[in-house]
Amino acid sequence: MREIYGIRLESPGILKWKYSLLLDVMHATGIASRLKIEGGLPMEGPAILTVNHLSYLDPPICYLAAAKLARRTIRMVARDTMVNPNLLEDSEELNEMGKRPTPRPLRHILSFLANIGDPLSVNRSHPARKSLNAIYSTLEYGQIVAISLQNTRNPANDLLAVENGAAYIALQ
Prior knowledge:
Layout: E1 2-4, E2 7-9, H1 16-29, H2 31-34, E3 47-51, H3 58-70, E4 74-79, H4 80-83, H5 91-97, H6 104-114, E5 120-122, H7 129-140, E6 144-148, H8 165-171
Parallel strand pairs: 3-6, 4-5, 4-6
Antiparallel strand pairs: 1-2
């Protein structure tokens, strides 16, 4: 198994240089020292980590928290347009949520951040069975999967209603 700074890189899609860059930036900016973690993550075996998604920084902070606490990596469940910035955002979904499309340069930066931990891509408008199967197989391989309870971030930085995706996956 590959490691970097004593952290197990449990997915072959995680690039060492990207993960190293994230950890170095988090330590240099002091985010790592200010991060207070409550509860625990298992050192071995599968787990579902449920997280809030109030800002664009939540996924990288989750990567750091998992690395700091369990010395292992996690795989975030991410919207397909964040994983691949060349996909078009669904205008109907954006209208329903009262959001505007993300500017293209920002989407490329966010995609770089989202792809640090080898995310699991999901099309929220038209979910496919293969997305669920990818999540299940990741858990079967004994990895940690992180799922946002709100399904998206909220421009007002308020918590949105909790979606039932994480509970559904846990029950399966």
